[in-house]
Every structure is written in C-alpha cells, then in structure tokens.
Write a structure and sequence with these properties.
CATH architecture: 3-Layer(aba) Sandwich
Radius of gyration: 19 Å
Strand order of the largest sheet: 5-4-6-7
Number of strands: 7
Number of helices: 16
Bound molecules: adenosine-3'-5'-diphosphate
Helix content: 40-55%
Shape: globular
Strand content: 5-15%
Distance between the termini: 41 Å
Structural class: alpha/beta
C-alpha cells in the first residue's frame, strides 16, 4: 500500500473531530482527502501567485490585498471587494478547489474537476491560496516559476483566533473546546495544518534561499506599516506602483479598501450564509483584527507554555518572533 492510500495516525481534536497525520502534519478527514488530491494532481502555472499561510494568520486580509494589487480597481460601489468576500475572489487549493463539494454535486464520494479562476488578461497572474505546508507542497511549487507570498502571525494570537473561530462552529456545540486543551494541542502541533512552528519555519527558510520567489511577512508588520508592504508586494509581484503622488494615492486606496474596518462592514462579509463545503459563514473570518488580543484570553501559565515552545522552536533557529 502506498503512502497516499495507507491508514494515517489519528488523534482526537475538538468536539467530535479527529485529525489525521500525513507527512508530519495534521488534517481533518475532508482536508486530508483534498490534500492528497492536490499532491497528486496540482500543477502551478509559471505566472501563478500562491498565497500560503497557517490558518488564522491573516489569509483573508492578504487575499484582499493581493487581489487589489494585481487587479486594481477604482473605489466605487461595484468594487470586487464590495461584491465578494475575499475567499470568493481567491480560491484555496485544499479547502475549495480540490475538495469534494458534496452539497453541490450531491453526495460524499462525488468527484469533480477543480474550477480554477479564469484570467482573461494574459499579463495578469492567477492567485490561489493554500494552508499546506512547504514540506508537502514544496516540490510542486518548485516545479514552476510561480511566486509565493507567505503570511504568519504571533503564535498566541493565531491560537486565540483559531479558538474563537471554532467557537462559531457546530463542531464544539456539544463538546466544549477548552482553552487549556487548545493550548496543549497547539504546542504539540495537533491542530489543522499544524505543527504551526514547522509550517512557518519551512516557508521562512525558503524566503532566505530564494527571496525572488518567496515574500514572507507577518501580520504584525503589516499592521504596523501596510503601505510599505503594499508597495513591496507590488514590486515583488511585477506590478510596481510608481513613486509619484499617483502611486501613493493608489496604495492609500488599497490599504483603506482592505482594512479590517472597511471589509468587515461590507454586507457580503457580514453574511451568515454557509458557503459550499465550509462549515462556517464568511462573517466568521472577521472578528477583531488586533495585535495582542491573546492577553485577554490566555492565562499566565498558558502564555508561559506557548512562549517556551516558541523559544525552543523559533529562537533556537534564530527567529526571534
Ligand atoms: P482575529 O480572530 O484575531 O480577529 P485568516 O484570514 O487567516 O483566517 O485570519 C483571520 C484573522 O484575521 C482574524 O483575526 C480576523 O479578524 C483577521 N482579519 C480578517 N481580515 C482582516 C483585515 N482586513 N485586517 C486585519 N485583520 C483581519
């Protein structure tokens, strides 16, 4: 039996959910199946832009920013971000394109061909996102001249954001996911797409190996200086903003349009409807959008525990996050 078909190691996660181990990382059953399909069939095109991230680190924000940088649109009522949730503009490989959309095609077990976004202008890139770690997707990403943008976030805020996200899910309705348990699982790496630390370190290493291919940024850096990163991302993606007042204005508009305040107040992002397959409404992707919110939820001993793992995993590799 080959690796793709063999029975993986499993561990109880939260509520009635189990996680399954594949190539050193943990997945829910449905995302594991989709991940295997990605590994078997996905071929990036040379111009693709791949937004990679660990869940809850700022993916939605980056989707809005990348779309606005690559497909600039004047701010008006029909702006793509007023009509669509960022996840509708940029599909994810394993949680969207390669998943069995059972609600759509009628029954688990159905398969379908991934519907990639059609880019009419050959000069424009196709933007796709993924939570898959470089350890699993790396060879595939290296097989083409695609570019990778990776966003990460402080581990404590990432965990707290994940915990809140799961509180909105039916998974924890009958079986509470206690914060202490969540901290322990996060530290051991047993969360979807975890271990978080290995995920971050591999993409960070690739940024050092090939800075022309990988742009690595943190949620906190983006909060601190969004204009700087929008300009840098424009250069990295081959669609630079000019240095004139006009270029500055365009950057200002993008930063404003993609801000937490603007996006979270759009009707489409307030919707409580369930998108296909995904168990949570789009509104769940906008909560507080702040740095340091973990202080309001983690007890001292939990902070000490996560900080200890951060020192062991990140600081030992010279990453002082
Ligand atoms: P909080 O739960 O801390 O508020 P992801 O998109 O990777 O799932 O990450 C979700 C986190 O990013 C949530 O964090 C969410 O509120 C925050 N977020 C979403 N859109 C944002 C934006 N435009 N600016 C800043 N933060 C944003």
């Amino acid at each position: 039996m080959n690796e793709i078909n063999s029975s993986p190691q499993r561990e109880k996660w939260c509520g009635h959910e189990f996680l399954f181990k594949f190539r050193g990382f943990w997945f829910t059953q449905i995302y594991l199946e989709a991940t295997k399909r990605v590994v078997e069939t996905f071929k990036p095109l040379p111009g693709d832009v791949i937004l990679a991230s660990f869940p809850k680190t700022g993916t939605t924000w980056l989707k809005a920013l990348l779309h606005s940088i690559i497909h600039p649109s004047p701010c008006h009522a029909n702006h793509p971000l007023t009509l669509n949730h960022p996840h509708q503009l940029i599909p994810s490989l394993e949680t969207d394109l390669y998943i069995e959309k059972w609600r759509e095609v009628g029954g688990i077990g159905s398969t379908r061909t991934p519907q990639f976004p059609v880019v009419k202008d050959p000069e424009k890139a196709r933007i796709l996102s993924t939570h898959l770690p470089y350890q699993i997707l790396g060879d595939i990403l290296d097989s083409s001249d695609c570019k990778i943008v990776y966003v990460t976030r402080n581990p404590k805020d990432t965990l707290v954001s994940l915990w809140h996200f799961m509180q909105k899910s039916s998974v924890v309705e009958k079986d509470e996911w206690e914060m202490e348990v969540a901290v322990d699982q996060f530290c051991r790496g047993v969360v979807p797409f975890g271990p978080y630390y290995d995920h971050v370190l591999a993409y960070r290493q690739e940024r050092f190996n090939r800075p022309e291919k990988v742009y690595f940024l943190t949620y906190e850096e983006l909060k601190e200086n969004p204009k700087f990163h929008v300009r840098k991302l424009g250069e990295f993606l081959g669609c630079p903003f000019d240095q004139s007042e006009n270029g500055e204005e365009k950057i200002d508009e993008i930063v404003k349009m993609c801000s937490f305040e603007t996006l979270s107040s759009q009707q489409v992002n307030k919707s409580n409807e369930l998108p296909n397959v995904f168990p949570l409404p789009y509104s769940a992707f906008f909560r507080k959008g702040e740095v340091g919110d973990h202080k309001n939820y983690l007890e001292h001993k939990m902070i000490t525990k996560i900080d200890g793992v951060t020192r062991e995993k990140f600081h030992a590799c010279g990453y002082m996050y």
